[in-house]
Amino acid sequence: MGPLAPVRRSDRLAILAGLAPATLFLTGPAPPRDMHSPRERGGVNVNDKQTQSSLVKTSLQERDTLRRVWTYLRPELRTFIIAILAMGVVAASEGIIPKIVNDLLDKGFGGAYVGKLWHVPALLTGVALIRGVAQFASGYWLSRVSNNVLKTMRLQMFERMLQAPALFYHRNTASTLINAVIFEVNQVMQILTGVLITLVRDSLTVLALLVYLFYTNWRLTLVVAVLLPTIGFVMSRVNRRLRRLNREHQAMTNTAAYVVEEAAGGYKVVKLHGGEAYEMHRFQGMAERLRGYSMRMAIAGGLNQPVTAFLASLALSVILTIAVVQSQANQTTVGGFTGFVMAMLLLISPLKHLTDLNQPLQRGVTAAEMIFGLIDEPIEPQEGGLPLTRAKGDLAFDHVGFRYGDAGRAALSNINFHVTAGEVVALVGPSGSGKTTLVNLVPRFFDPTEGRILLDGQPIDAFGLADLRRQIAFVSQDVVLFNDTVAANVAYGVHPREAIDMARVDRALAAAYLTDVVKGLPDGVDTNIGDNGMKLSGGQRQRLAIARAIYKDAPILILDEATSALDSESERQVQAALESLMAGRTTLVIAHRLSTIENADRIVVLEHGRVAEQGSHAELLAANGLYAGLHRIQFATQQ
After folding, report:
1. How confident is the model at residue 634 (pLDDT cuts 50, 70, 90)?
2. What sections of 164-202 are H helices per DSSP?
3. CATH fold of the domain at 9-30+66-375
4. What does the domain layout of the chain look like in residue ranges?
5. Are 604 and 412 in contact, with CB atoms under 8 Å apart?
């Protein structure tokens, strides 16, 4: 939360009665009521009951969120206490200044300070020095606490994201996850730094000044205190609307981020098809809705300002009247009244901060709910305790079925076939027949909803997930490379950077026909290839992904259109490398170009999630079924 603008002299008493927010945040507000709920007429109707139930639930959820934030603060409790003590020193110093002015006016000008006037500047300078040191110390230690907590949150979020199942990535876009891990944490920063500093330091300051005010003139102080319940009621009415608007604004922000992500990721399609106007219209609608929500939040958050200004003007009028009456009865002095007014003026800044605290707090709570939602995301099941050093590679699909969530038709149904160790099995079929879904079940990106998959005679969920995936090398049609060196991409996941086997990297690159390409790079294998390998051509990227699979040397190999991005010459080179790689390994190959899998030991043809036929290339052609039809179509197209 950024620093607040200084208050003009004409506005100094406008927020005098804003102490209520401090009381509310320290003791916890009562559940607020909906600003648009029906008015009560002789009883509570059904809508009122539903509204009150919803508000109570929301209030409890908010308190649970804040309580959970506190669990992250607890390990930093010692540092947190030091920061609070420093804030206490800052708050106490506020009450000293009016006392000095009081004594100076009553005694300094009357002769009591004759020969001791140096006490006043010395005391003021000393108070300012102590206050400055304490203020710096409190800010430093609280920032240290909050940054430690934010680091912990970010690490937990990223770790949980890495451990989440594949369905999690189907439900959440990349922009949503980036927004949560990187940007939403900054909203929580407002709770841990700005809001927390304001709440603790300014509440203590208000308390110290109120003690001084009550000690100086308790009658005038009671006038200020009368306004607290009124301001509390106003804030509770605003609180509900702010909370709802913040949640809706957050959801809208994620949607807008997704629109930007789509436009940036698909810029070629946008430009080629002239979609600039369409994308601009789509984003303009989102921007307008975001503006509308922001304005409603600004209106709701600003309601307390005119109300407190009006109440403060009433309070000032009453205070001045009472002060004049007391002066006529010799119940106050010029110094006492001046010190009282000065303390009231010193109240303005912390009260304004506390009055404005609600809106950033609501934003922070909303962001914290999103963060904790990600931290609480279920992780992939890690079942199995059977040891698995290196599998033989015998795979069996036993009545396997799979359905994506609540999808109507099953993606796979009653899949039965056996792949012996070292066998090369090709999966073919029309688009949407379930080929990619089937191979995704082997490394347990998803678990079958029916049946089971056996590896070396054991269900794959009997092994630990990490052990199972060490047995599988996967080369997909969607190549994913990392913004790192060639060597680091080839050895990714097998060896850390400091332990990469460079001779093994060279062999993998040679097998993928990349040796000459890498030699032509500025730093050879130590060349950074950029974001997703942007410094390489499409064919080179595909071959680098194949080199990564070669380096892993796993007993099971899955190729999902692994040669789709290669030209004819590169395809012949890589196909030869793949045939060498597949020797002695269990291999599942997905290919739309049937010419690349004619030499497979067996071909399994899928249609609508079921096995339509299986056999060798020659057998399937002789059967004159679905495979033969697909083969004739491709052969005719190639003529």
Report:
1. confident
2. 166-171, 174-178, 185-189, 196-197
3. ABC transporter transmembrane region fold (1.20.1560)
4. 9-30+66-375, 386-471+588-639
5. no
